[in-house]
Amino acid sequence: EADLINKLLKVFNKISQYLAPTWKILNDYGKNEKIILFEGAQGALLDIDFGTYPFVTSSNTSSGQIFAGTGFGIKDNHQVFGITKAYTTRVGSGPFPSELFDEIGNYLVVKGKEFGTVTKRKRRCGWFDTILVKQTVQINGVSNIILTKLDVLDELNEIKICVGYKIDNSNYDYLPFNENLQQRILPIYKIMPGWKSSTFGITEWSDLPKNAQNYINYIEEVIKIKISIISTGPERSQTIDRNNILSNI
């Protein structure tokens, strides 16, 4: 026990110079109209309160936790950017209505390099689910969507988008918390033609294949939120700033 205390004291002596009232620093910075970027970890549907309980993490991952966790008071001049892939993924157990168990699912795993960063565990992959995205948009107050990994879909002949759930004889526009209902979900799909050409590295909206534009526009129409930024590769430069968001920061 004494050894542990001594080790902790050594650590404290190194980091104590960095101790400060971060809530005050952030609020003072905000008063000067400086841009502050907060980044959340883990997916919104892993939120302990609004996620797919019990298949969640141990904390709040929604945007509201930013204010509670930092002490930065809620302002009326913030924007919430929701980040989602052009298809759906999940690590570990839990409901996944649009999950693919066929060769297309395997294709998304390989092409998208869908393996856990730390565990290297294979991610589950499926079609884009507008129901889950709309639910997340409302809970988090999302103002703009950032769509990533569009290029992963380049080689598909057709692409499906989940636009609703059917459970028995009823339609649902949200994911019910009841696990018995979740297990009986039949996804309702909109089928769209693929573009069968490379979008990798494209940085201008006008250079995207027409069917890729149609895919994005349709998702935008259904979720009723602007898709302002689109990534077409892993590099920061491989980005379409569709609504000039980045250029105004």
Automatic annotation (TrEMBL):
Sorted UniProt keywords: GTP-binding, Ligase, Magnesium, Metal-binding, Nucleotide-binding, Purine biosynthesis
Protein name stated in the entry: Adenylosuccinate synthase
PANTHER family in alphabetical order: ADENYLOSUCCINATE SYNTHETASE
Keyword Metal-binding: yes
Cellular component GO terms held in the UniProt record: cytoplasm
Transmembrane segments: none
SUPFAM superfamilies, sorted: P-loop containing nucleoside triphosphate hydrolases (SSF52540)
Assembly mode: Homodimer.
Origin organism lineage: unclassified sequences, metagenomes, ecological metagenomes
HAMAP family named in the record: Adenylosucc_synth (MF_00011)
Known cofactor(s): Mg(2+)
Regions annotated as coiled coil: none
GO biological process, any: IMP metabolic process
